[in-house]
Design goal:
The chain is of the alpha+beta class. Helix content is 25%, strand content 21%. The two termini are 41 Å apart.
């Protein structure tokens, strides 16, 4: 990791047993100046301690306030709606296409 300029944020053992202590769970960053705090949480749920890091949202000294995260909600209703949309598409021109790039483009056109 060091050869690729990644540094570890966790420096204490994250797996502790009655006979051993080892640092197995870590968080690596390639810009350590963008992290605020990191550490281990003390918990007896597992023999591995949870690791955490608080990262800064500043990029080159500029604070980015408007961060938009896009995701798909994989609920049963959404999956059924997606399946229905796929069933209603005409796939003949995609399936009969011998060129994978053209077939991929055809799928993209159908999904608009």
């Amino acid at each position: 990791m060091y050869s690729k300029l990644f540094v570890p944020l966790i420096t204490r053992p994250s797996r502790i047993t009655s006979h051993t202590a080892a640092l197995l769970d870590n968080i690596f960053v390639n810009n350590p100046s963008n992290y605020l705090h990191s550490g281990l949480l003390i918990s007896d749920i597992s023999d591995h301690l949870p690791v955490f890091a608080f990262l800064s949202n500043e990029v080159d000294g500029e604070n980015k306030q408007n961060i938009h995260i896009t995701y798909r909600e994989k609920s049963t209703g959404n999956m059924n709606k997606f399946r229905l949309e796929l069933e209603q598409c005409e796939w003949k021109d995609v399936l009969q296409n011998n060129d994978c790039s053209s077939a991929y483009s055809a799928v993209g056109e159908k999904m608009k």
